[in-house]
Request: fold
Amino acid sequence: MKTYRSTSINYENNQLQTIIIAIIFGVFIALINYNLIFTLLSIISIFFLTLYSIINDKKKYLEIYFEDDEVIIEYPNIQKIIKIKYTDLKKLTYINPRKSLNNYNSLKYIENGKIKKITFLSVAENEMYIDFLKWLNNKNSEIKFDAYPPDENMEYKIQENFGFNYRKFLKETL
Reply:
């Protein structure tokens, strides 16, 4: 019984960045402005915006499990669990942002008749990712696999294993 697991973007890093930006902005306002009331209001509003950002990030944090019979999406901070059948999975996209150390997956699925989309850290890398796609294709042969950006090496590996589908380019004349 092989299972795959991943999580969403590490929200602790987002929280740390938000707090640092808020502190820098608060100190900047305090140094520039000599009006005490405006400075206090600015610092209080920055505090509440930072708090809102942290709470919002925690709500979005998820863990995804690809079990043998279903996909489980768990939101541990809000105690919400979504179970998805493999037949409801529509598209899995491998995303490689050029300036980031982490690769991501974007999954489109059907829940209650609506198409939903989630993004999470990549389940595996390189050949292990291709093995994951083969395993997933055994569960649902209708699911589509894609890689972004289009010139990504992973797209070639996906097409090499699941069939080549060349893009159609429209030739424009002057």
